[in-house]
Design a protein that fits this description.
The chain is about 45% helix and about 20% strand. By secondary structure, the protein is α/β, with parallel strands linked by helices. The chain is rod-shaped and about 105 Å long.
Length: about 325
Protein backbone atom coordinates (compact mmCIF):
# COMPACT_ATOMS: atom_id res chain seq x y z
CA UNK A 1 0.00 0.00 0.00
CA UNK A 2 1.33 3.39 -1.00
CA UNK A 3 2.19 5.78 1.77
CA UNK A 4 -0.52 8.50 2.09
CA UNK A 5 0.49 12.10 1.38
CA UNK A 6 1.58 14.08 4.41
CA UNK A 7 -0.81 16.48 6.10
CA UNK A 8 1.82 19.16 5.61
CA UNK A 9 1.56 18.77 1.83
CA UNK A 10 -2.22 19.17 2.01
CA UNK A 11 -1.78 22.36 4.08
CA UNK A 12 0.49 23.87 1.43
CA UNK A 13 -1.80 22.78 -1.40
CA UNK A 14 -4.91 24.23 0.26
CA UNK A 15 -3.14 27.53 0.83
CA UNK A 16 -1.97 27.78 -2.81
CA UNK A 17 -5.45 26.90 -4.10
CA UNK A 18 -7.10 29.42 -1.81
CA UNK A 19 -4.62 32.24 -2.47
CA UNK A 20 -4.16 31.42 -6.21
CA UNK A 21 -0.41 32.04 -6.09
CA UNK A 22 2.74 30.31 -4.87
CA UNK A 23 4.21 33.60 -3.66
CA UNK A 24 1.10 34.63 -1.70
CA UNK A 25 0.86 31.15 -0.19
CA UNK A 26 4.55 31.31 0.75
CA UNK A 27 3.96 34.67 2.45
CA UNK A 28 1.04 33.27 4.48
CA UNK A 29 2.96 30.11 5.43
CA UNK A 30 6.11 32.13 6.22
CA UNK A 31 8.28 29.96 3.96
CA UNK A 32 9.98 30.38 0.60
CA UNK A 33 8.03 29.95 -2.69
CA UNK A 34 10.34 27.08 -3.60
CA UNK A 35 9.35 25.22 -0.42
CA UNK A 36 5.69 25.63 -1.34
CA UNK A 37 6.32 24.48 -4.90
CA UNK A 38 8.20 21.43 -3.65
CA UNK A 39 5.34 20.37 -1.36
CA UNK A 40 2.74 20.78 -4.13
CA UNK A 41 4.89 18.82 -6.59
CA UNK A 42 5.38 16.06 -3.99
CA UNK A 43 1.61 15.85 -3.45
CA UNK A 44 0.99 15.59 -7.22
CA UNK A 45 3.59 12.80 -7.50
CA UNK A 46 2.09 10.86 -4.60
CA UNK A 47 -1.47 11.17 -5.94
CA UNK A 48 -0.46 10.63 -9.57
CA UNK A 49 -2.52 13.57 -10.85
CA UNK A 50 -1.99 17.17 -11.84
CA UNK A 51 -3.58 19.59 -9.38
CA UNK A 52 -2.80 22.89 -11.12
CA UNK A 53 -2.61 24.20 -14.66
CA UNK A 54 0.35 26.50 -14.99
CA UNK A 55 0.54 29.35 -17.51
CA UNK A 56 3.57 31.38 -16.60
CA UNK A 57 3.03 32.44 -13.01
CA UNK A 58 -0.75 32.00 -13.16
CA UNK A 59 -2.25 28.92 -11.52
CA UNK A 60 -5.69 27.38 -11.92
CA UNK A 61 -7.07 24.18 -10.47
CA UNK A 62 -7.62 21.09 -12.59
CA UNK A 63 -10.79 19.05 -12.06
CA UNK A 64 -8.87 16.76 -9.71
CA UNK A 65 -7.38 19.78 -7.98
CA UNK A 66 -10.83 21.30 -7.46
CA UNK A 67 -12.09 18.06 -5.92
CA UNK A 68 -9.09 17.83 -3.61
CA UNK A 69 -9.35 21.51 -2.66
CA UNK A 70 -13.01 21.11 -1.59
CA UNK A 71 -12.12 18.08 0.53
CA UNK A 72 -8.98 19.68 1.98
CA UNK A 73 -10.74 22.96 2.82
CA UNK A 74 -13.58 21.09 4.56
CA UNK A 75 -11.18 18.90 6.54
CA UNK A 76 -8.98 21.82 7.62
CA UNK A 77 -12.02 23.86 8.63
CA UNK A 78 -13.21 20.95 10.78
CA UNK A 79 -9.74 20.75 12.37
CA UNK A 80 -9.70 24.49 13.09
CA UNK A 81 -13.21 24.36 14.56
CA UNK A 82 -12.24 21.44 16.81
CA UNK A 83 -9.12 23.29 17.91
CA UNK A 84 -11.20 26.37 18.74
CA UNK A 85 -13.62 24.28 20.82
CA UNK A 86 -10.75 22.68 22.71
CA UNK A 87 -9.24 26.11 23.26
CA UNK A 88 -12.53 27.38 24.65
CA UNK A 89 -12.73 24.41 27.01
CA UNK A 90 -9.21 25.12 28.19
CA UNK A 91 -10.17 28.76 28.68
CA UNK A 92 -13.13 27.62 30.80
CA UNK A 93 -10.62 26.04 33.21
CA UNK A 94 -8.49 29.18 33.57
CA UNK A 95 -9.02 31.58 36.49
CA UNK A 96 -7.50 35.06 36.51
CA UNK A 97 -7.71 36.62 39.95
CA UNK A 98 -6.62 40.00 41.32
CA UNK A 99 -6.37 40.71 45.05
CA UNK A 100 -5.35 43.51 47.37
CA UNK A 101 -1.66 42.92 48.25
CA UNK A 102 -1.87 42.45 52.03
CA UNK A 103 -5.00 40.34 51.72
CA UNK A 104 -3.31 38.19 49.11
CA UNK A 105 -0.23 37.60 51.26
CA UNK A 106 -1.82 37.20 54.67
CA UNK A 107 -5.31 35.76 54.06
CA UNK A 108 -5.67 34.24 50.61
CA UNK A 109 -2.13 32.90 50.21
CA UNK A 110 -2.16 30.51 53.20
CA UNK A 111 -5.52 29.08 52.05
CA UNK A 112 -4.94 28.86 48.32
CA UNK A 113 -3.07 25.54 48.36
CA UNK A 114 -6.29 23.75 49.28
CA UNK A 115 -8.10 25.28 46.33
CA UNK A 116 -5.27 24.41 43.95
CA UNK A 117 -5.21 20.81 45.18
CA UNK A 118 -8.98 20.51 44.71
CA UNK A 119 -8.77 21.77 41.11
CA UNK A 120 -5.71 20.10 39.53
CA UNK A 121 -6.92 20.80 35.97
CA UNK A 122 -7.34 24.56 36.44
CA UNK A 123 -4.83 27.17 35.38
CA UNK A 124 -4.77 29.85 38.07
CA UNK A 125 -3.16 33.27 37.90
CA UNK A 126 -3.15 35.54 40.95
CA UNK A 127 -2.19 39.19 40.53
CA UNK A 128 -1.60 41.10 43.80
CA UNK A 129 -2.01 44.78 42.94
CA UNK A 130 -3.31 47.86 44.77
CA UNK A 131 -5.25 49.20 41.80
CA UNK A 132 -8.77 47.96 40.97
CA UNK A 133 -9.27 45.99 37.77
CA UNK A 134 -10.48 47.67 34.60
CA UNK A 135 -12.54 44.71 33.40
CA UNK A 136 -13.10 46.33 29.99
CA UNK A 137 -9.38 46.47 29.28
CA UNK A 138 -7.85 43.66 31.36
CA UNK A 139 -8.25 39.89 31.21
CA UNK A 140 -9.40 39.31 34.78
CA UNK A 141 -12.23 37.14 36.12
CA UNK A 142 -12.56 38.33 39.73
CA UNK A 143 -11.07 41.15 41.77
CA UNK A 144 -11.06 40.78 45.57
CA UNK A 145 -10.93 44.40 46.64
CA UNK A 146 -10.69 46.22 49.96
CA UNK A 147 -13.11 49.12 50.33
CA UNK A 148 -16.56 50.36 51.24
CA UNK A 149 -18.45 48.39 48.58
CA UNK A 150 -19.31 51.41 46.44
CA UNK A 151 -18.65 49.83 43.05
CA UNK A 152 -21.33 50.69 40.54
CA UNK A 153 -21.98 48.49 37.52
CA UNK A 154 -20.40 45.33 38.96
CA UNK A 155 -21.49 42.29 40.85
CA UNK A 156 -20.09 43.24 44.28
CA UNK A 157 -20.33 40.51 46.91
CA UNK A 158 -19.17 41.09 50.50
CA UNK A 159 -16.74 38.31 51.39
CA UNK A 160 -15.00 39.26 54.62
CA UNK A 161 -15.43 41.76 57.44
CA UNK A 162 -12.80 43.87 59.12
CA UNK A 163 -12.67 43.56 62.89
CA UNK A 164 -10.38 46.45 63.81
CA UNK A 165 -8.71 46.88 67.20
CA UNK A 166 -5.39 48.04 68.70
CA UNK A 167 -2.90 45.16 68.84
CA UNK A 168 0.45 45.04 70.61
CA UNK A 169 3.27 42.58 71.29
CA UNK A 170 2.96 41.04 74.79
CA UNK A 171 6.45 42.20 75.84
CA UNK A 172 5.61 45.82 75.00
CA UNK A 173 2.29 45.58 76.83
CA UNK A 174 4.00 44.24 79.93
CA UNK A 175 6.14 47.39 80.14
CA UNK A 176 3.21 49.84 80.04
CA UNK A 177 1.80 51.53 83.12
CA UNK A 178 -1.83 50.41 83.69
CA UNK A 179 -4.54 53.04 83.32
CA UNK A 180 -7.44 54.09 81.14
CA UNK A 181 -7.45 53.37 77.42
CA UNK A 182 -6.32 56.93 76.70
CA UNK A 183 -3.53 56.75 79.29
CA UNK A 184 -2.27 53.43 77.92
CA UNK A 185 -2.34 54.64 74.35
CA UNK A 186 -0.50 57.82 75.31
CA UNK A 187 2.50 55.70 76.25
CA UNK A 188 2.72 54.04 72.83
CA UNK A 189 3.86 54.90 69.34
CA UNK A 190 0.80 54.47 67.09
CA UNK A 191 1.29 52.46 63.91
CA UNK A 192 -1.08 53.14 61.00
CA UNK A 193 -1.56 51.45 57.64
CA UNK A 194 -1.77 54.15 54.98
CA UNK A 195 -4.50 52.45 52.96
CA UNK A 196 -6.70 51.24 55.81
CA UNK A 197 -10.27 52.47 55.90
CA UNK A 198 -10.28 52.69 59.70
CA UNK A 199 -7.25 54.65 60.91
CA UNK A 200 -6.21 55.97 64.31
CA UNK A 201 -7.77 59.43 63.98
CA UNK A 202 -11.17 57.96 63.16
CA UNK A 203 -10.90 55.17 65.76
CA UNK A 204 -9.96 57.60 68.56
CA UNK A 205 -12.76 59.96 67.62
CA UNK A 206 -15.26 57.11 67.39
CA UNK A 207 -14.35 55.97 70.90
CA UNK A 208 -14.14 59.45 72.39
CA UNK A 209 -10.48 59.08 73.33
CA UNK A 210 -8.19 62.10 73.68
CA UNK A 211 -4.67 60.75 73.38
CA UNK A 212 -2.03 63.32 74.18
CA UNK A 213 1.41 62.05 73.36
CA UNK A 214 4.68 63.56 72.21
CA UNK A 215 5.46 60.37 70.27
CA UNK A 216 4.94 60.53 66.54
CA UNK A 217 2.89 58.01 64.62
CA UNK A 218 4.37 55.54 62.14
CA UNK A 219 2.58 55.31 58.81
CA UNK A 220 3.24 52.15 56.79
CA UNK A 221 2.24 51.62 53.17
CA UNK A 222 0.91 48.08 53.70
CA UNK A 223 -0.90 46.30 56.52
CA UNK A 224 1.61 43.45 56.38
CA UNK A 225 4.42 45.94 57.09
CA UNK A 226 2.47 47.59 59.91
CA UNK A 227 1.80 44.23 61.54
CA UNK A 228 5.44 43.24 61.34
CA UNK A 229 6.44 46.48 63.03
CA UNK A 230 4.04 45.73 65.87
CA UNK A 231 5.35 42.17 66.14
CA UNK A 232 8.82 43.63 66.52
CA UNK A 233 7.61 45.69 69.51
CA UNK A 234 7.88 49.11 67.88
CA UNK A 235 4.40 50.26 68.87
CA UNK A 236 0.69 49.48 68.82
CA UNK A 237 -0.98 48.84 65.47
CA UNK A 238 -4.62 49.49 64.64
CA UNK A 239 -5.33 46.48 62.50
CA UNK A 240 -7.99 43.97 61.49
CA UNK A 241 -8.40 40.36 62.52
CA UNK A 242 -8.99 39.67 58.84
CA UNK A 243 -5.22 39.97 58.48
CA UNK A 244 -3.93 39.53 62.05
CA UNK A 245 -5.99 36.54 63.26
CA UNK A 246 -3.04 34.06 63.19
CA UNK A 247 -0.86 36.34 65.34
CA UNK A 248 -3.67 37.00 67.83
CA UNK A 249 -4.70 33.33 67.99
CA UNK A 250 -1.09 32.35 68.73
CA UNK A 251 -0.60 35.13 71.31
CA UNK A 252 2.12 36.92 69.34
CA UNK A 253 -0.14 39.99 69.34
CA UNK A 254 -2.77 40.79 71.99
CA UNK A 255 -5.54 43.41 72.32
CA UNK A 256 -4.17 46.54 73.96
CA UNK A 257 -7.45 47.79 75.49
CA UNK A 258 -10.01 44.93 75.65
CA UNK A 259 -12.67 47.19 77.17
CA UNK A 260 -12.89 49.29 73.94
CA UNK A 261 -15.15 47.93 71.20
CA UNK A 262 -13.86 46.18 68.08
CA UNK A 263 -14.93 48.12 64.96
CA UNK A 264 -16.60 45.79 62.44
CA UNK A 265 -17.75 46.43 58.88
CA UNK A 266 -17.77 44.67 55.48
CA UNK A 267 -14.37 45.37 53.96
CA UNK A 268 -13.36 42.74 51.37
CA UNK A 269 -15.51 42.33 48.30
CA UNK A 270 -15.50 40.01 45.29
CA UNK A 271 -16.01 42.15 42.18
CA UNK A 272 -16.70 41.13 38.61
CA UNK A 273 -19.01 41.98 35.72
CA UNK A 274 -22.29 40.10 36.17
CA UNK A 275 -21.64 38.15 32.95
CA UNK A 276 -18.61 36.47 34.56
CA UNK A 277 -20.95 34.61 36.89
CA UNK A 278 -21.92 32.45 33.89
CA UNK A 279 -18.46 30.85 33.99
CA UNK A 280 -18.10 27.66 35.97
CA UNK A 281 -14.64 28.58 37.26
CA UNK A 282 -15.91 31.89 38.63
CA UNK A 283 -18.88 30.28 40.40
CA UNK A 284 -16.62 27.54 41.75
CA UNK A 285 -14.05 29.95 43.14
CA UNK A 286 -16.70 32.16 44.74
CA UNK A 287 -18.28 29.13 46.43
CA UNK A 288 -14.87 28.12 47.82
CA UNK A 289 -14.21 31.71 48.91
CA UNK A 290 -17.51 31.86 50.82
CA UNK A 291 -16.70 28.63 52.63
CA UNK A 292 -13.23 29.85 53.63
CA UNK A 293 -14.69 33.18 54.79
CA UNK A 294 -17.24 31.33 56.96
CA UNK A 295 -14.45 29.30 58.56
CA UNK A 296 -12.50 32.50 59.18
CA UNK A 297 -15.56 34.12 60.78
CA UNK A 298 -15.74 31.23 63.24
CA UNK A 299 -12.09 31.81 64.11
CA UNK A 300 -12.69 35.54 64.65
CA UNK A 301 -15.72 34.85 66.84
CA UNK A 302 -13.62 32.54 69.00
CA UNK A 303 -10.94 35.25 69.39
CA UNK A 304 -13.53 37.87 70.35
CA UNK A 305 -15.04 35.53 72.94
CA UNK A 306 -11.64 34.53 74.33
CA UNK A 307 -10.68 38.14 75.02
CA UNK A 308 -14.14 39.30 76.07
CA UNK A 309 -14.29 41.81 73.22
CA UNK A 310 -17.53 43.49 72.12
CA UNK A 311 -18.34 44.91 68.71
CA UNK A 312 -19.13 48.35 67.29
CA UNK A 313 -20.69 47.67 63.87
CA UNK A 314 -20.37 50.33 61.14
CA UNK A 315 -21.88 51.06 57.77
CA UNK A 316 -18.66 51.61 55.79
CA UNK A 317 -20.25 53.94 53.23
CA UNK A 318 -21.69 56.25 55.90
CA UNK A 319 -19.47 55.98 58.98
CA UNK A 320 -15.90 55.70 57.77
CA UNK A 321 -13.90 58.82 57.17
CA UNK A 322 -11.57 57.39 54.54
CA UNK A 323 -12.34 55.66 51.29
CA UNK A 324 -9.02 54.61 49.81
CA UNK A 325 -8.37 51.09 48.58
CA UNK A 326 -5.69 48.81 49.89
Amino acid sequence: MARPPSLNAHLYFECVARRGSLSRAAEEMAVSPSAVSQQVRLLEEQLGVKLFRRKGRALSLTLEGEQLFQASATALRMLRDAQAVLGQRQEMRRLNLRVSPSFGVRWLGPRLAGFVAAHPDWDIRVDAAPDPTDFDREIMDIDIRYGTGAWQGYHAEPILEDAVLPLVAPDLLAGLVPGTAAEILSQCRLIDSARALCQWDFWLLRNGLDVRSNRKKVLMDRSSMALQLALDGAGVVLESLALAAPEVASGRLVPLVPDVAVVRFPAYWALCPARHLNRRVVRGFLAWLRAEAAAHESEVSAILAQHGLHVDRLDPQQDLLRGEME
